[in-house]
Structure prediction request, 684 residues.
Amino acid sequence: MSIRAWLIAFVVAVSLLVGAPASTATADEEGSLAVRIDGLTPSRLSAGATIRMSGIVRNTGATPWTSVQAYLVIPRSPFESRDQIETAIEDGRSYTGERVVDAGTFAEVGDLAPGAWKRFEIKVPVSRLGLTGAGGVYPVGVQVLATDEQGQRSNDAVARATTFLPWVPDPAQPVPAGLVWPFTPTWRPADTDLEQIAISAESGQLRHYLDAARATPREARTIVLDPSLLDELARVTRPQNLPEGVDIPESRAAAVKTWLSDLRALVLDSTTWIVGYARPDELALSRYPENAEPLWKRVDEATSQSLVDYALTGSRASWPTISGTTLGMLEDIRSRGDGPVLVSRQSVPDWEPRLGSVVKLETLNGPLPLLVNGTLPDIPGTETPVTLRQRVLSNAALAALSRETDPAARSDALTIVDPNWDPGADGGTLMSQAVTQSGSGGLTRPVTATDLLRTAPLSYTGQVPEEVDAESLSASVLDRLATLSDIADRYDEVTIPAQRTDQARDIASLLSVRWRSEPALLDRAVRGETSKLASALDAITIDSPSTITLSSSRGGFPLTISNATKQPVLVGLELTADNPSLDLDDVEPVEIEAGERHTFTVEVDLEDQTSSTVTARLATDSGATFGDPAVFNIRSSNVGLIVWVAMAAAGLLVVATWARRFLGRRRRRNEAAAVPATPEDDDE
Prediction:
């Protein structure tokens, strides 16, 4: 670091300690003020400029404030690198610099009752500030002083907000700059307030966010889409699917349809990255890989089908949570494909802005592109279109300085926008000024994240955490989700028409990172879905007697399947005997209407067996079995060929016996008649 840079760092450190006081203890929940900056000119400093800052001071507490004043705060020397800014922010929230207290340089806001708000405007010529000049970024902000209801007035600021003002010469080449707009559900996954979501899409945060993204020039716009957002909004437009007690006016439902149409048009007209349906908990699936394969299959299926339903396309990407990325997870992601991954600074702690927002990580499965969210840490005050514009321009100014001192640097000003942020009704035009050459005065040029991917990104060779402290879905939940997936497979194969697409989306939704904070509700939801599908399958049953007697060794017997569900099913039977020598043919699946029964005739040949135990199981078209089996005994009545032969032999024996007796008597009679009489006989 140069001597000048060390001096600047020293001045900044001093200003942190003594230049701006910490916030007062009186600004608590019972009585507090909030301030936001919504106007700032110029967007880049120059020696002859006048800083004009405007905004709103609001009393958010329950007690009044009087004699409210707003002061400009700025240090005399700029930051020359992002590291200096980040260090200052981490050291304390009051890093802005010196409060400008000269007469005519601060705003008299007046008194503010609870809930009231007033605008302020501050004008200070740069010539009166004693700034050291060009060559960096000046943090600039507003501090609010006021008197509380007890008449106490502290020199500590009651409220503060901060932004940045770059002062750099025009770079030799404009710095690549662009905005990344993620679209994903940001509300709780359970107990969703559909009415509030509809209002948001009609005239609130969702509407403002989409309009601001549309106002960003196409060549500087990257969309990151979670397809589950489309499904969640589409629910609002279908009155028949609304929960009991929820009533969405027709005009509001129409506004939601318009929002969905506008989002689809934006996606088709933008560089778009598609993330897994409902942003699955990739950390959990990496930590507990036993069930990862079938569950990832569900996520991929849900993602693909939703894109088909909405006729959308885009490059596949991954989006882990801010603190939930590990090296093992990135290896797993690369094994499934080579799409980019959105990661935070925490995930790549050795990343430097000079590497650029897009870098590549060498994994065992090949290079993996990473889009690093290099945004500055949170600063005092609410983010507004003005402060976001200044953040982009300041990043560009620091990137220009980096490129001047290091010809190999890839520093840029690509900025990822918070999907929770509300830019207001007219914020898009202001923000677009930061990503075009005309709007930035030649400091930036528009670029998309994909553009940066195509420029042979530099390699990231630093550390990636092996493990993180972040909570994830539990192994037991993944086990239950895998069981649910298996049951859903059976249900999908059986029902007509198949419900596979809906089931895939339902299961993928239960894998969302949004469930991390609500494990009890997630467990209840998984168990409820499992019970619902299992009950539906249990309503398909086999009716059979416990014993079946055949009149011979070969014959047929009936088995009946009952469909007590509310829709048609396609089901057959798998038959197995306890005697391996007995071969039974399975029954091919047939369609059975809701509430109907179907009886099959099963043919069997016992051959020389007198009986056998048979098990019948319900089976899908693919041969998978389900439900409770029917177990019964088949036996022959024993009047077979052998019996008939034996009876015939016995009959012949009887006939032969009687014939022998008859013939014997006749022979004896004939012999007696042939003997002559003797004298002795005559005498007698």
Notes: Residues 1-30, 678-684 have pLDDT under 50 and may be disordered. The CA atoms of residues 395 and 413 lie 5 Å apart.
